[in-house]
Write a structure and sequence with these properties.
Pathway: tRNA modification; tRNA-queuosine biosynthesis. Its EC number is 1.7.1.13. Catalyzes the NADPH-dependent reduction of 7-cyano-7-deazaguanine (preQ0) to 7-aminomethyl-7-deazaguanine (preQ1). The chain is elongated and about 65 Å long. Helices cover 19% and strands 31% of the residues. The strands form two sheets. An eight-stranded mixed beta sheet has the order 5-3-2-10-9-8-7-6, covered by helices on one side. It has a two-stranded antiparallel sheet with strand order 1-4. With 278 residues, it is α+β, with helices and mostly antiparallel strands.
Length: 278
């Protein structure tokens, strides 16, 4: 069983050459405390300003049945935003690959093992589904709302700046999105591409300023989950909406994609929803 580790990536497998396991090994999971990245945003554990989840899809999920025959599925995981830990993505990938040559009596046994191990690492219950590779919920769809990407703007700032977020007097309820989200891995510097959806009720956001703000993450180094929390906190502070949902759908890397969402109480993302780039 995995144990809590320090708030550091010094010993994480990310950015290192790793041997892929052949047999089940839950010790491969590398949890990282969320608190260190939340502190600069003024977020205190136990007093989160949002609800939410980190939704993961794993496209390299396989195991052996009791007779040694390989089975495959797409795994969907939902990790609660109030879990003390997130789980480093490469360690998650290595852990999932440790199922490849391991026999299980049933699919339910696989789900039970995944929920147990991931729950220990996250220190919170993790919901697990195994869906058929042809499942309709994996069919690509479009984001709802209005796309900002055709706005003809000049951009010179590629670091997040809440100063770009401006609002008017009118109170509106709208859904906006952009496919221009890009951030970088805090360890390897590799680009993380994604789309972001913002649904809110409150003072009308200036769309050009909002797009400049989102593009500002282009050279920012942070985990997907923390980027979404950063966006949520900046919008709450600058626009003071009555309701807010921020959801990112990141492009998969290494057989995994991560789609975090954060919202005010009562908000939920549109489901099921996967994009063509994912």
């Amino acid at each position: 069983m995995t144990q809590d580790r320090p708030d550091t990536l010094a010993n994480a497998p990310l950015g290192r050459e790793s041997a892929y396991p052949e047999h089940y090994n839950p010790a491969l999971l590398y949890p990282i405390a969320r608190a260190a990245n939340r502190a600069p945003l003024g977020i205190e554990e136990g007093a989160l300003p949002f609800v939410g989840e980190d939704e993961w899809h794993a496209f390299e999920m396989s195991w052996l049945n009791a007779r040694g025959k390989p089975l495959v599925a797409v795994a969907r995981f939902r990790l609660p935003a109030d879990s003390p830990n997130l789980i480093e993505s490469k360690s998650w990938k290595l852990y999932l690959n440790s199922f490849n040559q391991t026999c299980f009596e049933s699919q339910n046994a696989v789900i039970k093992m995944l929920e147990q191990d991931l729950g220990v690492a996250a220190r919170a219950p993790v919901k697990v589904e195994l869906v058929d590779v042809d499942d309709e919920t994996l069919t690509p769809r479009k984001l709802p709302g209005e796309c900002l990407d055709e706005l003809d703007i000049a951009v010179s700032d590629y670091t997040p700046s809440a100063e770009h977020l401006q609002v008017g007097d009118a109170i509106v309820e709208e859904t906006l999105y952009s496919h221009l989200l890009k951030s970088n891995c805090p360890v390897t510097g590799q680009p993380d591409w994604g789309s972001v959806l913002i649904r809110y009720r409150g003072p009308k956001l200036d769309r050009e300023g909002l797009l400049r703000y989102l593009i500002g993450y282009r050279q920012h180094q942070d985990f997907h989950e923390h980027c979404v929390e950063h966006i949520f906190c900046d919008l709450m502070a600058r626009a003071t909406p009555e309701r807010l949902l921020v959801m990112a759908r990141y492009v998969r890397r290494g057989g995994l994609d991560i789609s975090p969402w954060r919202g005010t109480p009562g908000e939920r993302p549109p489901e099921p929803l996967r994009l063509a780039r994912q």
